[in-house]
Amino acid sequence: MYRATQAELQQYEELGFFCREGVFSPDELVELRSATENVHKQVLEAADCDDAAPIDLIDNQKFQMVLGSTIKWEWRDDLRAIRSMEPTAHLDARFEALVDDPRLWQPSADIIGSDELSLFSDKLNVKRPGGAPFPWHQEGPYWAYGAEDLEHIVSALTYIDEGTEENGCLWIIPGSHRHGALQNLKNRGVLGALYTDVELVDEEAMAVAVPAGSVLWFHRDIVHGSQSNRADTNRRVFVTAYQPAGLHRWRLDEKRDIKRA
Ligand SMILES: O=C(O)CCC(=O)C(=O)O
User: Fold this and answer.
1) 73-118, pLDDT tens digit by residue?
2) Which residue of 17, 115, 199, 251 has the fewest CB atoms within a 10 Å radius of its CB?
3) What CATH number did the domain enclosing 172 receive?
4) Closest ligand 1 atom to 169 CA
5) Which residues form the domain of 75?
6) Residue 191: half-sphere exposure toward Cβ, Cα within 13 Å
């Protein structure tokens, strides 16, 4: 019913992505925003507890394990906010249900070429006003450490808020997935190993400016990143990555097959 069309599959192959607008209704978005803020509140409260795990500083960026999730905190000290966290769905039933939503998994199944899927990862990107940029990178080289079937993983980004250039929407380099895993940045600390040297890419970058409720599917090797949020509103995205059924989740000793209605 929500199957990927031939035109979408062709665009995915040629450009490494496709987008559908109007997948989630305004009422559903109200619930997803409430789920996001519920998760954010739980994490802040747990991180404030005396027995919270210590913060790890990697290249001056703050990481912390909270409630079974790896939290990447905002760079700015005055902005006490999550920048990104993985996994997320276990902290709110509405995200858990989203993982099994056929509007996400059916087109993903068509891209992967398998109708039985499992969840590879689920991540929440919360970009508050003033939230930090995300350097150019590819998922593939990062996932290569631990994925059981790297070639068959696809990401689906659910836009809980609209993405605009002002609020730090995603930027992608269409067609860059065709290069496979690209050279990473040298002499840029530990995290530089995860960032792509875009000097070596000829294709032009484009901003993915889309309304709230859209879903973007993209290839693991497409080069992407984002700028800071210069707007006075949030830019929140939930990212699910799917893989064939029966495989372990990203860095978890657990499998989670997709439940078909
Ligand atoms: O949401 C963003 O700003 C970019 C995040 C990103 O690139 C990612 O989650 O892989």
Assistant:
1) 998 878 889 999 999 999 999 999 999 999 999 999 999 999 999 9
2) 199
3) 2.60.120.620
4) 3
5) 6-243
6) 12
